[in-house]
Write a structure and sequence with these properties.
The chain is built from 3 helices and no strands. It has helices at about 30-40, 50-85, 105-125. Helix 2 (about 50-85) packs parallel to helix 3 (about 105-125). The longest helix has about 40 residues, at about 50-85.
């Protein structure tokens, strides 16, 4: 009897994952994998235009992934620096997702704002 996919309690486990990859090692979607299977089975391949189109799409996707990760990294570094400077866990950001914080300028502005708020609190309390 074959016991693959069944644990000792009798429950069926679903930890088998099938991934299809192209000749460059890129993970294929279900549709792309089926298309490759058909090409192999029937003994033909995609035309020159389709190959060029898919190659350009893959290059564009890789380029977008690299650029977005760099932007995200720099943004997170500036947010972390701001959190360390202010000593607060949260930061209110004006301007939405496209606003980029600059470390040095932001440090100076935050320090001025903190001093101003402290002076206001002292004035109100005293």
């Amino acid at each position: 009897m074959d016991n693959r996919g069944v644990d000792p309690s009798g429950a069926v486990t679903k930890d088998v994952v099938i991934e299809y990859r192209d000749e460059n090692g890129r993970k294929l979607t279900q549709k792309e994998a089926y298309r490759q299977l058909c090409y192999q089975f029937h003994g033909y391949g995609p035309g020159k235009n389709k190959l060029d189109k898919r190659q350009k799409q893959a290059e564009l996707r890789d380029k977008m992934n690299r650029s977005s990760s760099n932007a995200t990294t720099s943004f997170m570094q500036s947010l972390t620096a701001t959190q360390q400077n202010t000593g607060q866990a949260h930061i209110a950001i004006d301007g939405g997702a496209n606003m980029v914080l600059q470390n040095e300028k932001n440090k100076e502005l935050l320090q001025k704002k903190i001093k101003q708020k402290a002076e206001k609190l002292r004035g109100e309390q005293g």
